[in-house]
Design goal:
two-stranded antiparallel ribbon, mainly alpha, Aminoglycoside_PTrfase, disordered C terminus, Aminoglycoside 3'-phosphotransferase, Chain: A, domain 2
Amino acid sequence: MEAVLQRLAATARHRADGAERPPFGLCHGEFHRTSLHVSRTGCRLVDWAKAFCGPGLFDLATWFGTRTPTEPRLLTRLIHAYVAAGGHPDAEADRGGLPAARWALGWHRVWAAWWLLSAAAAGHHQAAADRRHTQVVLRQLQGALDLLGTPPPISASCPSSNAGRSS
């Protein structure tokens, strides 16, 4: 995990550019189908436990979750629909030298790893789950590196956990 964190730190400086570009502000942090309740009287977004102030593209990136391989083209379509519906036009602008969707998905994976580590530090899982928890955090960080464009490790002793998967 140390090597992945070092590689992420090396790329973070130039990939963070554009983080405060609009839309920026209150983010739900877990914007997906189970947080959106639709009734005859309207739509309501519930479960604000992971809310924070940050790049609004993160909420669009969370719609797809973190358990499956990322698909930047799907997020690009969602961002386009957001703008077409009246969202801030800068949502489609490149950030950190990357297309908006790839940037948002990469940084969302970093945020997901941070959240998982925060939950572990607060004692929200049992010690018996540590190995699995570490694997999930590492998968999020490796996914972030893949999206943010960091080159693969030089060492042949670290086979990619994403073999056969596309982003």
